[in-house]
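WP5 quarterly update. Target: Threonine aldolase. Source organism: Streptomyces tsukubensis. Length: 385 aa.
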Amino acid sequence: MSGREKDMRQRRRLALRGAKRRLAVPGLESTTGERLSALVAGAASVHDLDLPSDLYGDGVVEELERRVAELLGTEASAFFPSGTMAQQAALRSWAGRTGSPVVALHPLAHPEVHERGALASVSGLRTVHPTTEARLPRADEVRGFEEPFGTLMLELPLRDAGFTLPTWEELKAVVAAARERDAVVHFDGARLWECTTRFGRPLRDIVALADSVYVSFYKSLDGIGGAALAGSASLVDEARTWRHRYGGQIAQQFPTALSALIGIEQELPRLPSYVAHARTVAAALAEGFAEAGVAWSRVHPAQPHTHEFQVWLPYDADDLDLATVRQAEETGTALFRKWTGQGPPGLSMTEVTVSAAGLEWTADHVREAVAQFVARLPGADAGTA
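Structure tokens (predicted):
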């Protein structure tokens, strides 16, 4: 990272922290003191703090595992320090059970884009792609795929395609197609918690379609970190063995486990309201860009499937970052966060998350913020800010 990039990163961090109005305030952007204070404030409501601390996965970690299994309706779950490790353990276990090291997944799935080839490098697995379209594969694509595979992995939602989900009927059909091929089904459910609105089904019904599922505690639930792998007792036991081999048998993890329990208690019940309001925000963003005379813009999906979605604009990412920071500094409103230019030439994208802070925004607030933002883009009339 260049000195200029570091300076902008620090400026953006300070601008966002200083903004009085934001659509989301992720815990990961908090100070150490703020995180510790939140942990202390909420811990007693989810766990008896007079009990002995955890040691190599007992105590509060076991309590969290029981809670997750209960929520998801599985026989068991195992805590992991990261989702990358949890899925390594799951997919490696399924490879041994099915006799196939081949995992069918989307090319935009997390292991393909964000894990430096870990499935092949660490676990000796090979991946294939039933589709390259910016959506999860359809049943006919899974059924007719020309190569054999032992496991079908579905990321719910598919983050890098805009946090998109199939319909409930489409998901059931895809799972059925995998079963016809004698493949097992694993859900990458890092953000599974907020999928219930789109599917119109409780978590247990969604998880029941798969043979295993991984969930994250630091994304939707705003925990410190960590993940869980859930499924049958025998699979989870095997995954615990791989967890140890991969270096995940950590002496004490009570801060992470406590923050996960707090997230389950406090954030999980609120996620449906975030999803619902994200649709209001997305519609107002589209209206705001149209009213501001931006030549082209896209909110994707137009009606978000979860409480997160993408916004695309025909500007350089650096210019959009600067407008984002200036708006936060000059108006106290931070509409966006970080922009990336890693899409089609001439277009940049940002991800929008709507959480508790965003519930205070009306559609009028959003449109007003869009006008302020556009006024700070290259070629705009600064007098309209």
